Amino acid sequence: MAATHSRYVADRGLTSRMVVTMFFIGLLYVVLVGVLVAALGNAWPLIVLVVGGLFVAQFWFSDRIAAFSMGAREVTPEQAPELHGAVDRLCALADVPKPKVAMAQSDVPNAFATGRSQRKSMVCATTGLMRRLEPEELEGVLSHELSHVAHRDVAVMTIASFLGVLAGIMTRVALWGGLSRAGRDDQSGAGIVLLLVPLVSAAVYIVSFLLTRLLSRYRELSADRAGALLTGRPSALASALTKVTGEMARIPTRDLRKAEPFNAFYFAPAFSGESVAALLSSHPPLERRLDQLSRISAQLGQQR
């Protein structure tokens, strides 16, 4: 699924994982809709229409929703010459179309990319990241983000994440409204069906969550590798990773909590402390990412 003509190194492991993830996500989608149809009976046309409409809306507008939620604001070359200059150089090097360039007013040092295709993509850096990184480090981070667009894993993550969100909403709705109705309808057997809705929705959410986490961790390693090989400076990316991760500890907890829901899109995860969230992170451990970059640096050194 790497972009045509892109100089980013292709990753068959990432492609196969995206295909498998989408297969199981599609299967879970069918299961969830099937349970809703069985629970609500004659209302099935409305269910299919609503769920289908939400899916289409999520696919077409998810990039805008994500960008808006994370405070991204498109900037011109005059407003952010350093950022645009780095993106221009990387796009020329990778032979990919230039995405929209945006900045987010946040002290949390991070970057992300969104978009269902290269033509509709956006790369964004926070003001906190721009202030802390050297030019070579910034290019390493942006090369990492642009590889997500080139490999199209951003679109896959968007679709995969939607099912988990939908299942979570259905679980809450069923728990609030379904259980009380179940007590009144248990004589007809409808109560059992209504009880199954939150259970199945919760199971779908858990499986979807695990699938997206497994894909997300691998895609971050893939982006590190592709980004480092494109620039030929894995040490710059490693330096940026170390610096960004270290700076997270100095960011106010309130700001980190605001950023945590979007960790799957970020260059480095934002955590407000040692928690279960860190154990279920969307990113691989820092040590693993640095070890991979160290090995790439050694390989490039031998080739030279």
UniProtKB/TrEMBL annotation:
<keyword id="KW-0482">Metalloprotease</keyword>
<feature type="binding site">
    <location>
        <position position="148"/>
    </location>
    <ligand>
        <name>Zn(2+)</name>
    </ligand>
</feature>
<feature type="binding site">
    <location>
        <position position="220"/>
    </location>
    <ligand>
        <name>Zn(2+)</name>
    </ligand>
</feature>
<keyword id="KW-0862">Zinc</keyword>
<feature type="binding site">
    <location>
        <position position="144"/>
    </location>
    <ligand>
        <name>Zn(2+)</name>
    </ligand>
</feature>
<keyword id="KW-0479">Metal-binding</keyword>
<comment type="similarity">
    <text>Belongs to the peptidase M48B family.</text>
</comment>
<dbReference type="GO" id="GO:0006508">
    <property type="term" value="P:proteolysis"/>
</dbReference>
<keyword id="KW-0645">Protease</keyword>
<dbReference type="InterPro" id="IPR001915">
    <property type="entry name" value="Peptidase_M48"/>
</dbReference>
<keyword id="KW-0378">Hydrolase</keyword>
<feature type="transmembrane region" description="Helical">
    <location>
        <begin position="43"/>
        <end position="61"/>
    </location>
</feature>
<feature type="domain" description="Peptidase M48">
    <location>
        <begin position="78"/>
        <end position="295"/>
    </location>
</feature>
<keyword id="KW-0472">Membrane</keyword>
<keyword id="KW-1133">Transmembrane helix</keyword>
<keyword id="KW-0812">Transmembrane</keyword>
<dbReference type="Pfam" id="PF01435">
    <property type="entry name" value="Peptidase_M48"/>
</dbReference>
<feature type="transmembrane region" description="Helical">
    <location>
        <begin position="189"/>
        <end position="211"/>
    </location>
</feature>
<dbReference type="InterPro" id="IPR022919">
    <property type="entry name" value="Pept_M48_protease_HtpX"/>
</dbReference>
<feature type="transmembrane region" description="Helical">
    <location>
        <begin position="154"/>
        <end position="177"/>
    </location>
</feature>
<dbReference type="InterPro" id="IPR050083">
    <property type="entry name" value="HtpX_protease"/>
</dbReference>
<feature type="active site">
    <location>
        <position position="145"/>
    </location>
</feature>
<protein>
    <recommendedName>
        <fullName>Protease HtpX homolog</fullName>
        <ecNumber>3.4.24.-</ecNumber>
    </recommendedName>
</protein>
<keyword id="KW-1003">Cell membrane</keyword>
<feature type="transmembrane region" description="Helical">
    <location>
        <begin position="20"/>
        <end position="37"/>
    </location>
</feature>
<dbReference type="GO" id="GO:0008233">
    <property type="term" value="F:peptidase activity"/>
</dbReference>
